[in-house]
Structure formats: structure tokens, C-alpha cells
Amino acid sequence: MSQDNTQCYYMIGIAGMGMCPLAIYLAQLGHSVSGWDDNLRPEIIDLLNANGVKIDFEKKLPEDCNIVIYSSAIGSENSIFQEAQKRNLSLLRRGTYLAEITRDKKLIAVVGSHGKTTTAAMLIHALKRAEFDFSFLLGALFVDAKLLPAFSSSSDWIIAEVDESDGTIDNFDPEITLVVNFDWDHPSQYPSIQDLENTFLNLFRRTRQCIIIPDSCAYLNELIKRNLHCEILSYGQKGNFQAIAHVNSEGMTTLMTEGVLSQKQFSIPNGGLFNAHNALAALSVVHCLLKKLPDEPFQDFLGVRRRQEYLYKSEKLNVMMDYAHHPTEIEALLNYIISFSAYQNIVVFQPHRYTRTQAYFKEFARVLSKADEVILLPVYAASEPFLNEGVSQRIVEAFPDPQGKLTLINEASEELFAKILSKSDVAANILFIGAGDIEMHALKYKVQLTRTEWWKSFCLSKSPGTKVAEFEPLASKTTLRLGGYARFYMEPASLADLIHVIKEAHSIKCPVFILGRGSNLIVPDEGFDGLVIRLSHAHWKEIRDLGNGRIWAGAGVRLKEICGYACKFGLAGFEFFEGIPGSLGGSLRMNAGAMGAWLFDVIESIKCITQEGHIKEFSKKDLTLGYRFCKDLENAFAIGAVLKGSQNEKQHVIRAKLDEFACKRKMTQPREPSAGCIFKNPQNHFAGALIDSVGLKGLKVGGAQVSSLHCNFIINNGDATSKDIVQLIHIIREKVYNNCGISLEPEVLFLGKKWDEELAVLKG
Question: Whole-angstrom Cα distance, residue 441 to residue 447?
Fold first, then answer.
């Protein structure tokens, strides 16, 4: 296939660990490369962008695209795939195209059932240490973020992992084939071990220079006897390339080479005898190419992501993430950990593919039983259709004495974290194992642990009057009376404590929300995975007269209290506060209003604390204000304000107006729990009237209902969930848009969520 610089590539599933390196490699060759994926992580977006690869968020093929590459996880029902077919574009599976671009090079193919990625990474690192010139494509990311997973050189040599899982292995013609091991896997592609055997045998027959195999694998030693014409070499204790491995009491692994490799001792950064095996395999290829080994071939090698990758280490707790998804791999990992650690081993395992689980559920049960405790997740399908005989329950049924040792949970992360966070105080190795999206659970748990350690430290240093809690229920603290818990909760008694906690939270990227009376707020059913601060201590409820009609009020003061204080001193202009059921801090954030007036009509200046923990003061003229927002408080938290009334007035006159507004509010607003107005009023319209006009008054979803008194209120009938509320918001927006052509914008906050993402399913 032509490799000129005019090619325009599009990659479907570009974030996959096979696709991402290929995209970078093609961009290095000077091609135009773009692509789409439905699972784009920020680190992958940044990596691709930094290497000249464009991310397509709209699923739109470029007009000048002439080659489309897709991952094996992409089916023909994909809309981009179908568009490429309609345009008669060159449409190639990732493995097929990789074989195409390596055909004119001397390919070093790393193959085998387990350990290909780690072995390839070790080989790449050792050859770099030897200053050998070559290209490579790795099937993962290096732990060292400075290293790219692909490199294009003018050299004839190229290293790539050749994966048998999708059958594209049949397209490769290697110069050197390095076999790490042989184990029956991928039963959907290879119904029997003989099918896989034939695939490897055919690859060996297409290999031009030499095949390197482990001397301990009986299957491979039989295969190489079948009419192979290239050189056969082996590695192991009795092979052409020999070494002895040792794991010490701390898990450190060393490799002592001998024979043609000469007597040298190397430290293996990834522990375990299986990684010593991988290292010797890599060194065998190095010696084939160079006839010698570089000094310290694995020096500074930090490993590969998701391969025995430690995410967290402390005196009592170690958290590791590993890609193991076959019983052989899991057993090797557990044997290694057990060999040097006396801690409890708690495994969180996500089976990968229904067909593999069906074939190996008994073996999974056997090897997992070596752990002290197993938390089992549902099968990660990896594009396979559902197979009832291949679900996680099969492992449970085959597990020896699962009572108290094995727990099958659903995929909801809060259930998983509740289970494993309870283990934080025991000496344990927590192992996240699997090839699916379990990585996201592992990384989230790492964040949880980091935050937990930070929180424990803060709780020891806070002042005595500051209240703190974990997993604090929030429903009772909101006017809507629903929602889950706050992971961390605090009621600071001083400015010093508030500044301290905000600075620390910012440093570890823990989200912070300051809660007032809880009006204008929906708390998700799953809660808020961050810090909620409530300024309910007396320190934040100070009101004092500053003279000349000016009042200082802390952020924790209820607007109703400001009404009463102003009335007592004969200050007019605050009466409309009677119609706003919130505290000053939250009302400032959204420039709350009622009875035709706005909060900032009476604000002279505000004092706030930034997300970085710095105190700032703004006069009203310096603020950017609008309908239901104060831009300056989007990334800062109000802690108080100076308010100025419009005129002096007699108390009874002010009181009469307050009573009038209170009566009007009671007559026009529901008494049931609500968050206040759900939608902003569109220009020249009232949201409530629009909702009423399309016949939605009284509409119910679960325990949530559009108020019959005021249609811009959604009330909680006693058992509503946030899911009910959000579903009702979806229905309202869709019907108003379809009937009136107006897109209603939520006024209410959704804690920890973004409305544009929640409502993205609607057009308008």
C-alpha cells in the first residue's frame, strides 16, 4: 500500500491500545490522521493531539479520507463504518493494516498467549539502550509518560506485537518470530486448541530468519518439528539462551544469564518469574541482532501501563492494576504476590468476554480461590453478543466454598467502592485484574484512597469547633429532600479552616461545593464524590450594621434573616428577599431574584475565596453579572457581602410589604418539597406558562411531579429520586421545544453534573 504523504486516514476506535500507537506511527510518517472513539479518556486525547492526530467528536468522515482503519471491537453496524462502505473507501481491520505496513520491513513479531506487551516493551527498551535503530508499535502505554507507544525510523527493522485474537495473525510474514508462550485462548476465534496450533504453525512457516521459543513449552517444541525451514532457537534453563531467575523476600526479581549470553546479573523492574521469562525472551532477540547484550539493558525501565502497575503504596495497603484475563495469567500473578507478601490478597476481577468465561469458568474459580477475598464484576463483553453460559455467575457456581470469600456485585462503582474502601484499614494487597474497563474503577479507587488519606490528615489538624464527616447524607439538607451522600462533609468554624481545606482539596483535585440552605439544587441519587462545605456555624451567620444604610452579612445568613434585620433598623429595599428561600452565599452565586428584583440590586461588594484558597474582594462595578449568574463566582465561593438599602422607611411599612410578598409566595408556590424554579425564564416568556401551555401540569414520573400550582416547580411527593426529576426535566424540555420552538435552560444546579451533558440527547 502506498505510503506517500497524501494519504488521509480515519480510525474507528482510535483510543484503543492497538489503534492509538498505530495512529501516532502514521502521523509520524507524515500522513493526515483523525478518528473517533466512544471511550475517549483525557490522557489519550492529549497524547493523540500532541502527536498531530485529530480527534473527531462528531463521527464525521473527512471528505478527503481514502483509508479507514477499524479496531476489532467495531462492528459493521457502526455508522462511520457504514459511511465508509457507501463511499467505497479502503476499509481495513487494524491487524490487517499493521501486517500491510510491516510487509516491506524486517518484522520482529512478538507473539504468544500472555506477556506479549511486557516482552515487546522490554525488547524495545533494551535495543534503545544498545542504540540499535528500529521502528516499533507497542500495544499499550509506557508507565513513563515521556515515552511514546510508537516510533517510526528509516531502519528496515520494526518491532510489533502480533495478536492472534481476531485472526489477523494470518497476514504477517515476520523476519524473526519471538514466541512468549502457547496457551489455548480466544475460543470464539479458535474453537479448539488444534485450530490455534495450526495458526501458529502457519506463522512459523512464513517466518524468514528465525523462530525463538521457550524451551519449557512442550506444545511449541512439538510444533517446530513440522517441516520448518528457518533457524529454531530457544531460551530457558536449557535453551540456546540461558538464565536463572530468583525472587527475593521483597518481591524483587533478578536474572542471571549464562552460556552465550555470558554471566551477567540483571534486575527486572517488573517482579515475578513470569517477567523474568519475558525478560530472557527479549534478551534472546537482542543477542540475535547484536551478538551481545548492552550493559544494564533494563536500567530506568518503568514498565507498561496495566501490567503489575502499582497505583498506590502505603505501610498497610498496596493497590495494583493488571491486565491478566486468562486463568494462567491470574495464577502467575497471584503466585508471585503470595510468594513474598503476608498481606491479605483482595482481588477485584472483571472477566473478559463471554466465550472465554464459558470455556474457563472452572479454571477461573480455581485460581481465584487462591486469594483471600474476591470481588467479582460482570463480564466485559468486548463487543461479543450475550451468552448466558458465559456470565460471571458461572464462576460463582464453580467457586469452592464462596461463602464469605466471594462477592458478585453489579458494575455500579459506588457498590464496588463501598466494599473495598472498608478494607482500607487492613494490611492488604488489592489487585484490580482484567482486560476490560476495570482500569477506570482502579484509577477511581486510587483517587478515593488519595483523598481519604488527605481527609484523615485534615481532620487531625482542624480546629475543635469544625464539624467533619464522611458519607454524609445530603437529602435532609436540601429543600427537594432527595439525593445521596457527600463523600466528605465539613462545617468550618473559622476562616482559617475554610482556607486550609479548600487549598488542600484543590491540590489533590477534589471537587468542592459550598451548600447553603439547599434550595435550587438537585443532589444525584449516587451522591457527590467530593467535599461539601456548609457554612452553618455561627461564624458565617454574622449580620452587622455598617452605617449609612449598609449591612455586612456572612454567606451563611438566610435571606429571610436579612429581611428581619433590615426591617428592625428601618432599611427598605430588601423586602423581595422574602420570596427567596436560600442563604446569602448560594443566592450570590446565582444572582437570585424574586418579585421583579435581583440580589445584586442591593449588593455593594462581595468577599470570596478562590478555588486555590485565596481571599478576594469585588465591588459591584467589577463583577460580571447576568440573569441567574455571577461569572466571578463560577470558580470561587462567596463568604460574605456588603449590602446597601435604597432608603429609610418606617418599620410597619416594611413589615406590610414583607407580609404581602410572603402571602403572594404562599399563594403561587407549592408547599411540597421542591428546589424552586427548575428553568430560567426565556426572553419574553415565562417558563411556567410554557410548560402549562403544552399540558404538562401535574405530570408525574415516579415520585416527581410538575406542580399544579406553578408549572416551573417540580415537587417531591415523598419518594422521588433524582433520576425521576431529571427524566421529568427531559420530558418537559422536549415537549416545550417540539410545540413552542423554545429550548428551556435549567436554572437549578445538578450537583457534580453538567446540564449540557445530561441533556445532550435533546436537540434544541
Answer: 10
- What is the per-residue pLDDT across 689-737, written as a single tens digit (0 to 9) for each? 999 999 999 999 999 999 999 999 999 999 999 999 999 999 999 999 9
Read off the pLDDT of each residue in 663-690 and give the average, rounded to a whole number. 87
C-alpha grid cell for residue 540? 458565617
Q: How many CB atoms lie within 10 A of CB 538?
A: 10
Average pLDDT of the chain, as a whole number:
88
Name, in order, each residue with C-beta under 8 angstroms of 478's C-beta and a sequence gap of 6 or more: 515, 518, 519, 521, 523, 675
Residues 126, 295: Cα–Cα separation, whole Å: 9
DSSP characters over 652-693: HHHHHHHHHHHHHHHHHS-SSSEEEE-BPPPTTS-HHHHHHH
- Asked if 420 contacts 336 with a C-beta cutoff of 8 angstroms, the reply is no
Q: What is the mean pLDDT of residues 235-240?
A: 89
Of 294-298, 344-348, 732-736, the poorest mean pLDDT is in 294-298
SS3 state of residue 27: helix
Q: Rg of the chain's alpha carbons, rounded to an integer?
A: 32
Convert the pLDDT of each residue in 359-397 to its tens digit: 999 999 999 999 999 999 999 998 889 999 999 999 999
Q: Which three cell numbers, joined as nine digits, stand for 632?
A: 466571578
Indicate the pLDDT class of residue 243, thresholds 50, 70 and 90. Answer: confident
SS3 track for 47-111: HHHHCCEEECCCCCCCCCCCEEEECCCCCCCCHHHHHHHHCCCEEEEHHHHHHHHHCCCEEEEEE
Question: Which three cell numbers, joined as nine digits, stand for 7?
Answer: 494519504
Query: What are the tens digits of pLDDT across the range 168-179?
Result: 999 999 999 999
Question: Do 391 and 379 form a contact (C-beta atoms < 8 A)?
Answer: yes
Half-sphere exposure of 223 (CA within 13 A, CB side): 26
Q: Is the dihedral of CA 248, 254, 259, 263 positive or negative?
A: negative
Say if CB 102 and CB 410 are below 8 A apart. Answer: no
| Upper half-sphere CA count for residue 126 (Cβ side, 13 Å) | 31
Alpha-carbon gap, residue 178 to 162, rounded angstroms: 10
| Residue 703 in grid coordinates | 415520585
Element (H, E) at 219: helix 218-223
pLDDT in tens, 614-630: 999 988 888 777 777 77
Question: Using 50, 70 and 90 to split pLDDT, how confident is the model at 594?
Answer: low
DSSP state of 147: S
Closest CA to 600 of 570, 577, 616, 568: 577
State how far the alpha carbon of 536 is from the alpha carbons of 236, 253, 466, 560, in Å. Answer: 69, 56, 10, 15
Euclidean distance between CA atoms 24 and 11, whole angstroms: 11
Q: What is the DSSP string of 304-368?
A: BTTSSEEEEE-SSEEEEEE---SHHHHHHHHHHHHHH--SEEEEEE--B-HHHHHHHHHHHHHHH
- What are the φ/ψ torsions at residue 54 (nearest 5 degrees)? -95, 130
Q: Helix, strand, or coil here: 464?
A: coil
Give the pLDDT score at 763. Answer: 39
The whole-angstrom separation of Cα 200 and Cα 194 is: 10
CA distance 367 to 344: 16
- Report the SS3 class of residue 257: strand
Element (H, E) at 736: helix 722-740
d(CA 55, CA 193): 40
Long-range contacts of 394-397 (CB under 8 A, 24+ apart): 394/357, 394/358, 394/361, 395/351, 395/357, 395/361, 395/364, 395/365, 395/368, 396/365, 397/361
User: How are strands ordered across the β-sheet holding 603-610?
Assistant: 543-547, 550-554, 636-644, 603-610, 615-619
pLDDT of residue 664: 73
Q: What integer pLDDT is reported at residue 761 of this predicted model?
A: 46
Q: End-to-end distance of the chain based on CA atoms, in angstroms?
A: 45
